[in-house]
Design goal:
By secondary structure, this protein is of the alpha/beta class. Helices cover 26% and strands 32% of the residues. The chain starts with 21 loop residues before the first helix and ends with a helix.
Length: 216
């Protein structure tokens, strides 16, 4: 005589309107870190989504942050290529670099009577932290970072200037960090985010996003 088939209750999908817990937020942030290691998210994207995760109110908010990412260990989850170049130098000339690839070692920037522009927004940063040693001698160094990162600058200036022009990160949020050891000798070391690097373009993009949202 055959045994009766056990009754299985149908699985009830999680309610996206339920408020998210701190543990659920941390799980999403870890998924973002792994996605950066896999080369799926740039430093800019990871920073934006990390901030959104910590500010998320509901589970639905968290689901939206990772909706375009596959599950952990999905096929094709290869580490992002290493960022081979670590030193960027301009001597009586210009050097403009947009880093693409994984950054897991400190970067060194030197300007001697020249200009260096180093763009970190397109990099993959698995640890969520970038260290840069920047030296400007009668020249200029500009480092472009994503909006929302925490910038910590140390060092000194002699007849020069060291400046941070970034939007302040929301207090209490463990956001990605850029640490700058800056030396300016009759030169400038400047750290800017997207808003301060291209304010007109940023304003136009914000206007267009708001206009599209109103239409929808």
């Amino acid at each position: 005589m055959s045994q009766p088939t056990p009754h299985h209750r149908p699985r009830i999908p999680p309610d996206p309107g339920v408020r998210a817990s701190d543990a659920e937020r941390e799980t999403v942030v870890e998924r973002l870190r792994v996605a950066s290691v896999e080369g799926r998210l740039t430093f800019e994207e990871m920073t934006e989504r990390t901030e959104a995760a910590y500010l998320a109110v509901t589970r639905g908010d968290l689901d939206a942050i990772t909706s375009d990412l596959p599950g952990m260990g999905a096929p094709g989850a290869e580490p992002a290529p290493l960022q081979v170049q670590r030193r960027f130098t301009a001597v009586m000339g210009d050097c403009k670099e947009r880093i693409v690839g994984r950054v897991d070692q400190p970067l060194e920037v030197l300007s001697v009577m020249g200009d260096v522009v180093l763009d970190l927004r397109g990099a993959q940063v698995p640890s969520g932290e970038v260290s840069v040693t920047a030296t400007a001698v009668m020249g200029d160094v500009k480092v472009i970072v994503p909006d929302g990162v925490l910038v910590e600058m140390t060092g000194h200036s002699i007849l020069g200037d060291r400046r941070i022009l970034v939007r302040e990160a929301k207090p209490g949020l463990p956001v990605p960090v850029v640490r700058i050891q800056a030396t300016a000798v009759m030169g400038d070391v400047k750290i800017v985010d997207d808003e301060h690097h291209a304010p007109v373009r940023r304003a136009l993009a914000t206007w267009w996003e708001e206009r599209r949202a109103r239409r929808e």
